[in-house]
Amino acid sequence: MEEALSCVRKMKEEGIEMTLVTYSIIVGGFAKIANADQACNMSQAEALVREMEEEGIDAPVDIYHTMMDGYTIVGNEEKCLIVFNRFKECGFTPSVITYGCLINLYIKIGKVSKALEVCKMMEVAGIKHNMKTYSMLINGFVRLKDWANAFAVFEDVVKDGLKPDVVLYNNIIRAFCGMGNMDRAICTIKEMQKGRHRPTSRTFMPIIHGFARSGEMRRALEIFDMMRRSGCIPTVHTFNALILGLVEKRQMNKAVEILDAMSLAGISPDQHTYTTIMHGYASLGDTGKAFEYFTKVKNEGLELDVYTYEALLKACCKSGRMQSALAVTREMSSQKIPRNTFVFNILIDGWARRGDVWEAAELMQQMKQEGVQPDIHTYTSFINACCKAGDMQRATKTIQEMEVVGVKPNVKTYTTLIHGWARASLPEKALKCFEEMKSMGLKPDKAVYHCLMTSLLSRASVAEEYIYSGVMGICREMIECELTVDMGTAVHWSRCLRKIERTGGELTEALQKTFPPDWNSYNNILLNSDDELVADDEEDDDDGDDAYSSSGETDIDDDDPGLNLW
Known about the structure:
By secondary structure, the protein is mainly alpha-helical. 71% of the residues lie in helices and 0% in strands. It is built from 32 helices and no strands.
């Protein structure tokens, strides 16, 4: 635009008058380069239109449409409507293009209901939709995940006798992928090709992304190859989708291979590429690799944002390097990158793993001071820190604080609390917490049942009628839910049962219904083994934590703030 404006200045210096064509070109240029961060470009476009009118040149229809498009790009509904009303005041009759500008505006700013009102205005005026307006509507419904209405619009396209173009096909493919019908999305590509429409990288992108996110990497790679055979050149976004899928499956070697393939294809990784790789290594607790790719982001001059630092913090906290995590937060501060809820969650989770409730509490206080709102993950992680430190009073107080601020505990929160009461050798409190969870309308999962049953059995406290009836009730629920525990859990529970019912009984018979199908044959070997198992059991009874954590049924410390941010 600078060169274009320089030409305009030379024209004026040489006394050459600007024509309608000149004004149209400059106004169009400002409108096209406008974005949310450069709304000033539209102010310059406005100034040009005023100058044009002062010179006695009436603005044509096209300039009004250009201005409406520009305000759509910056998301300025008010200014766009002012131009639309001015358009009508000048005696122009709105066409499908004019109404299309409004539909596009409302779809872009997420007001699909307003876009539908514009459609009714078109209907009243006797103006039919064209392919672009139909595509805009489908795009709007896809954004809302309203698949039924998206396909209803597509049916209208067919009824009107219009032949879908590439843009419309791309939106329909997004709809199929959104609802999980990947095969139908692939069939749509074949329909496009039959209609002599050439698919673009945007056509294949949602299918590759869908397969990658669902863990079907073989099929994702098949579509990637199909895209290349169709003559489409993969973009950085295509490669990023593949890398994300592999990272979520923790196949880091293959993810790095894709990174190498990008280099061979002459495509430079972006900040998102490296951040995704960093999150993958962070999930594995590989701090060295996470820092290696963080250095690449720096060296290649890419943007360092909060998501990049989140990945680095996640790696430090997962591997227990909390001092390194604090150094990372200091660097964030020096870069003037504020800590958000996810960052605090990662740090609190890191201290919770170490059972350091004081550091976790300090972070909770810092959140309040910095105006960052704790979420359910924040509170659950802090409760975990309290439970590991044996501070059940503070854990209970935190539950009460959650209720005050309107954050409802979820199943994971209650599982953490139940585990805390189990560690504190208070199974009756754990059972009460379980009943409270159900009264809140939450459905217990396998981890809850496993934690609670292990707590009750390992204390051999079922002699108390209240506890005994609770165990039987939990047992019945597990049977009704058709839950089956793993062999390690079955062995531990069996040892506890032998202490409670030496020769078997109602509880043993009921609980064994949750054991693996091959339990009986395994149990025979177990019974014929040395009495060392019984002696070892004395050690296992310390607090039941080993059986809880070794079974693989749950992971209280699981962290998940990273990979779904984009």
